[in-house]
Amino acid sequence: MSLLPFRIFNHRKDGYAVPVDGKPQTAVRKKKSAGREWFDAIIFAVIAATLIRTLFIEAYTIPTASMERSLLVGDYLFVSKINYGPRTPITPIAFPFAHHTMPLGLGKAYWDGVQLPYFRLPGLQSVKKNDVVVFNWPADTVDHRPVDKKENYIKRCQGAPGDTLSIVSAQVFINGKAAENPPQGQSTYIVKTDGTEFNPKTMLELGIVGAESPSADGTYVLFLTPENLAKISHFSSVKSVTPRNEGKGEFDALQPTFPGDSYHKWNADFYGPIIIPKRGMVMKLDSGNIAIYARAIKEYEKNKLEIKGNDIFINGIKTNSYTFKLDYYWMMGDNRHDSLDSRYWGFVPEDHIVGKALFVWWSFAKEGSGFNSIRWDRIFRGIN
To answer: Hey, which of 138, 167, 184, 198 has its CA 20 to 30 A from 339?
Structure first.
């Protein structure tokens, strides 16, 4: 029987065993179990994905028609956090990959016991007019959610901080000049025919959707892009096509526009003028405009606002002006008559901005099934 030489070892903290004669030998480490390796891999993947979603890019889907036909229901898109600068988490303790509600409706997906101040890392650009922007819906007051846990909305930026915006006959004006209209944006038109019904297949191919069912005399109310307006106007059965806009001074009490008071008799097609607040801007306040800026002063910038008769008190001090601390934006849907946007709930503060929509990476239509439901022409299409 052979004998192995007996050697004395000193043990080091770095995982090696060194014999007293100075010749190192590697100590045998215990191998991780398969379960432990899977657990470590999952933890790493969750952390990596969270960092990517927070700091770089995140995927979203379009659930409603407010941006048609620029973006369609069933479009899946990537939104850049880098362009405007990543917003650091305001509510840091939250369940991974859930926004504000746990799957299957199992309660809140976050704990708001810890709230961090708003901070945004440097970005590549500021929010520009005509950018398609994802933001937290300012009017979301469900359960008093924190800013970063409010519903995500997507609209087009129509007004930047400091702009004066107005709408005349559904045309947006910025600082007195007509704004550029989205090339695939839609408005509502009344289409009168000779009674001949439109071919459903043709309407589907053109992507034309009706705001209402056609009347007995062959009158349609349709959402039309400029391109589809030109096409349908040349149909042999069409007698006339006219915009269906609200009249100046008409006020819809069932769906009032922002700020919703009787002083401002505005509607979706005749609106303003309204000044969009800018950081550092000193705004004169009076009984005529306090309703416009009250929510920003009180809710977004966390001041105590009181109105006593014609007097305005901010943090207990009587005043006739206010200096804004944040930049604000005016967001509108491209489907102008089927979009609840800034015309109905007001300004979007800078701390609500999530990111810039870059491109559609996948798209499904609710019509059809299997491969027939895939909109192949929209895959990897840039968003303009």
So the answer is: 198
